[in-house]
Design brief:
674 residues; alpha+beta; Thrombin, subunit H; Immunoglobulin-like; 3 domains; 9-stranded mixed β-sheet; 6-stranded antiparallel beta barrel
Length: 674
């Protein structure tokens, strides 16, 4: 059936003719009415998921993905990540769109109108969803709330600043700033190269109970790289993930750098003031320019069958850590190959160019070379490699990727971005040669449609992660300052900023390092519910997290009552301290205290991981209100260094069986057994 609801009105001329091509009752994954459609003359498509009338309270939630993807993502999710289930449990229907149509991420996008994917397509769907809701539930006021993280955070903010009638509140999360891209990636890549042989030592220094200092672990060049990335905002505790963190989206973004600033790569190696022009720099040691012959090609299926662990994504879900990778295109995609001549060092990130054979002319990026094995970065975005065969000649060259690692030094922005002060002289002028343009605002405009201004009128709660390696947390504070420029002393009437300790960038329940990190999804759920209560009934949400910004790092108060926000605090001790030194067979006493800062939230569970496995098999419910205290004792029989972790879970309301709104935090202690 195709139908048009004539009551729909919108000023945007591009979205004047909505249509519905599916309208049906469904039972999976739960009972709902499903409506699918689009707008005539556009590639924009939408899906609306309406709960039964008895579960509906007059609102909707709309997720905005980091890049335009698909309107069919939500049904794939389950548990804590289930956006439809969360919406229904919160009295809302759920809206998602394809953002105007998915772009070709294998190509540089410079000519597209960014406002369509940023907010116009989403706003059109939101307005039409309100119209459809009137026919589903009868006449009523329909409130709407948009949320999105990372690139979706840019888009959510773009929606908040450039629309006034589609939504009533916003929850952008793990957000960046107009100077985030590509600089948060380049500075990390530089540190990963310089520090790669000592990152385990860095981790040991920043872990609780360390008796070493950073100067004990690093040489002069290493310490300089460590200070540079830390002052730019990279969280030192997050180095525990150095083996798998890679370069995240930069393998896609680097093409834009070369397209927008085409002389940079040559200037880096030849012009004084750039690291590559310094003959004493270690970039010359690490530079790889190798031509070799392919000896074997691995498809995704073959890699799985032979046990190659390549960090392959499962498929699109709209998440902030995988949207830029493209969807899985099949088992026959080339994900790796072997070459006859191994490079003198792992180039870490490099450009693959196919020189002969059917795939000649194809370029792709590599995430690393392990011996003679070349790993393809974003294989689903490199269809040209499909015809690569043994015997073909390829080149591996990391010259451009090495040059990119210090691009941020040549991108010094206005003084409001204080993390760049390390690259300024005493008079405020840049230490290094500067490029003719700032790349960050160009890329940010591509995501949000405009440059973030802070000009918002509707309620907003920003959720930011303190262990985030892709969106450094100081950027939420920067955005708060931009809002304050418009709202002044009334900022707290419209905006909250909640910091989440021990959380990363990804909006997923699964944690690769569960004894180091927690999911922030429970905080996100709470923000969506509280922003709705704020907009609809004037119920004040939890206050902003109190923090200081010191040399690019967010520093929180220790006590829950001083911290604000919604995340509980956890204090764990071993024999009364962060470190216990004991003999094998000696008893160690552990004590955990968890506390919330909100009166209507309470600690519902404490999870203990004594053996460092990350399984948290000792899970104890908490039934009383107020601070939760639990004690454990353990005897370690073998010498070694052990880390014991306690995770606290807080929740609002009485339904502690719900997977939604479970707000987590953790604490760790070190036990050294001799």
């Amino acid at each position: 059936m195709t139908d048009t609801i004539t009551e729909f009105q919108i000023e945007d001329e591009l979205f004047q003719e909505p249509y519905i091509d599916i309208d049906e009752e469904r039972t999976e994954p739960r009972a709902h009415r499903y409506v699918h459609g689009g707008f005539v003359g556009t590639d924009t498509r939408f899906s609306f998921y309406f709960p039964p009338a008895g579960a509906y309270e007059g609102r909707f939630y709309q997720h905005i993905t980091p890049v335009p993807e698909s309107e069919h993502l939500a049904p794939q999710l389950s548990g804590e990540e289930d956006k439809i289930g969360f919406s229904f449990s919160s009295g809302a229907f759920f809206v998602e769109t394809n953002g105007g149509g998915a772009p070709d991420l294998s190509k540089v996008q410079l000519d597209n109108d960014p406002t369509i994917g940023a907010y116009r397509s989403h706003a059109a769907a939101a307005l039409y969803a309100k119209t459809v809701a009137q026919s589903v539930y009868g006449p009523h006021t329909t409130y709407g709330y948009a949320f999105g993280g990372s690139g979706g955070g840019f888009r959510t903010i773009g929606a908040a600043e450039n629309t006034r009638d589609a939504w009533d509140g916003f929850v952008p999360y793990v957000i960046g700033s107009p100077v985030a891209i590509p600089n948060v990636f380049t500075v990390r890549m530089h540190a990963m190269r310089v520090l790669r042989d000592v990152l385990d030592d860095v981790v040991d220094v920043v872990e609780p109970g360390s008796e070493r200092t950073i100067d004990d672990a690093l040489t002069g060049e290493q310490r300089a790289a460590y200070d540079e990335v830390t002052k730019m905002g990279f969280p030192p505790p997050s180095w525990y993930g150095h083996r798998t963190m890679g370069t995240q989206a930069f393998g896609v973004l680097y093409k834009s750098l070369g397209a927008i600033d085409p002389t940079y790569y040559d200037d880096f190696w030849t012009v004084p003031g750039y690291l590559g022009a310094d003959p004493a720099s270690s970039v010359h040691r690490d530079r790889v320019r190798l031509t070799s012959t392919v000896t074997r090609v691995y498809t995704r299926q073959e890699a799985a069958e032979t046990g190659l662990l390549l960090g392959i994504v499962d498929g699109p879900s709209g998440g902030v850590d995988e949207a830029f990778k493209g969807g899985i295109t099949g088992p026959d995609v080339v994900v790796a190959f072997r070459i006859a001549d191994a490079p003198h060092t792992n180039p870490m990130n490099s450009v693959i160019a196919v020189l002969t054979g059917a795939a000649a002319g194809t370029e792709a990026t590599s995430s690393g070379v392990e011996g003679d094995l070349v790993l393809v970065d974003f294989p689903d975005l490199s269809p040209g490699l499909q015809t690569l065969r043994a015997g073909d000649e390829v080149s591996i060259d990391n010259s451009n990727l090495l040059a990119a690692q210090t691009y941020h030094r040549h991108q010094v922005p206005d003084r409001e971005f204080t993390v760049w002060d390390q690259f300024r002289l005493a008079d405020g002028s840049p230490k290094y040669p500067q490029r003719p343009l700032l790349l960050g605002p160009i890329m940010s405009r591509g995501a949000s449609g405009t440059i973030q201004s802070g000009d918002i009128a509707d309620k907003m709660i920003v959720v930011e992660s303190l262990h985030d390696r892709e969106a450094f947390a100081w950027q939420a504070d920067w955005y708060r300052s931009k809002v304050r420029e418009h709202l002044g002393d009334a900022t707290d009437d419209t905006l909250r900023v909640w910091m989440v300790d021990h959380a990363l960038h990804g909006d997923v329940a699964y944690q690769e390092h569960p004894t180091h990190t927690v999911s922030y999804l429970g905080v996100l759920h709470t923000a969506l519910r509280q922003v709705a209560a704020w907009a609809e009934a004037g119920v004040e949400p939890a206050p902003s997290t109190r923090y200081d910004v010191m040399d690019g790092q967010i520093v929180l108060p220790a006590a829950a009552g001083d911290r604000g926000g919604v995340q509980p605090t956890v204090v764990l001790t071993a024999n009364g301290a962060q470190r216990a030194d004991v003999a094998a067979g000696e008893r160690v006493a552990f004590r955990a205290v968890a506390e919330t800062s909100e009166q209507d939230a309470r600690i519902v569970e404490l999870h203990w991981d004594i053996d460092g496995s990350g399984r948290f098999e000792d899970r104890q419910p908490v039934t009383s209100a107020g601070p939760a205290t639990q004690e454990r004792a353990h005897i370690f029989s073998a010498p070694g260094t052990y880390f014991v972790t306690v995770k606290a879970v807080a929740q609002h309301g009485e339904n502690t069986e719900s997977p939604f709104g479970r707000i987590q935090n953790l604490a760790r202690v070190r036990v050294v057994v001799s």
